Amino acid sequence: MSNASLMSTPDDRTKNISQIAKYLHRWIECQQDYHSNILVRMRHRFSNIFCFCYGKRDGTFLTGYYLFIKLLYCANVVGQFFLLNAFMAMDYNVFGFEVLDYLLSNGEWKESPKFPRVTLCDFQIRQLNNVQRYTIQCVLPINLFNEKIFIFIWFWLFLVSVLTFINYFSWVFYCTFKEKKLQYVKKYLKMEHEIRTGMDKKLARKFVETYLRDDGVFILRVVGKNSSDMVLTDLVVNLWKIFKDTYVPSKQSNRSPGSDDTDYFRLNGGDTTKENYV
Q1: Three-state secondary structure call for residue 84
Q2: Where located (predicted)?
Q3: pTM value?
Q4: Per-residue DSSP letters for 214-247?
């Protein structure tokens, strides 16, 4: 739906993004804990470290589940190397490095001992009741093609493994550090000039850490990767307005930028009921 908004008219795009924001707001509220005690606060703290070990109400379930699936991708591509090594019954894990080393040192292609083209073959010839065994030199031209095929497979798996690990660690980096998540959301709020005062910055931190949390920021990243910055900016701003309308008193939301911001916003950690946002 967010991707379809790119090709729609401005009015339709505004309506679609508004509906997406309302749906996300309902989903975020359904994932919140509506009571607070020492066990809930301890669980929230541990879920920030072991993000896929706890329930969906900790705000880290989707993020942890996604990182776990990414980790399985990494294990899969590494397992392919060991599987082929067991299938080939040779030291296939370093086969590509050996080929590169030989090409760089000698500058020409040479027959690999792992895929011999000339070898000794044993066969039997029956003569009457006697079986004669012979060992002769034979040519294996198919190994000329097998060698090229398995070299291509090795480099393909190596490229896939490198890209998979880079992608995994980049997501771990983005999903682990709180400041990165805060900067990511604040960037789109600043594009629409939604952060004007020091108290707006504090409110933005609560918006990210207590309202969106890890799963909310993760969904925004996924939306941004599958649509455009324009759609994501409108979506973040709509969620920001819903957040302020829901949890911030209107008399404080309409304060002028130069007014005293001492008691503008107060939020207790862990409990996300409306009473604790003010």
Answers
A1: helix
A2: Cell membrane
A3: 0.71
A4: HHHHHHHHHHHHHS-HHHHHHHHHHHHHHHHHHH
CA atoms within 13 A of residue 108's CA, in its CB half-sphere: 2
In order of 1, 12, 235, the CA distances from 7 in angstroms are 11, 10, 16
Is residue 20 a contact partner of residue 4, using CB atoms and an 8 Å limit?
no
Is 40 buried (19+), middle (13-18) or exposed (0-12) by CB count in 10 A? middle
* pLDDT of 161: 93
Cα–Cα nearest to 43, from 32, 52, 54:
54
At 71 the pLDDT is: 93
pLDDT for the residue numbered 43: 60
SS3 75: helix
Structure tokens that stand for 122 in this block: 């044993």
How far apart (Å, rounded) are the C-alpha atoms in residues 176 and 263?
Answer: 31
Of 53-57, 81-85, 220-224, least confident by mean pLDDT is 53-57
Contacts for 237 with CB less than 8 Å, ≥ 6 apart: 188, 189, 192, 194
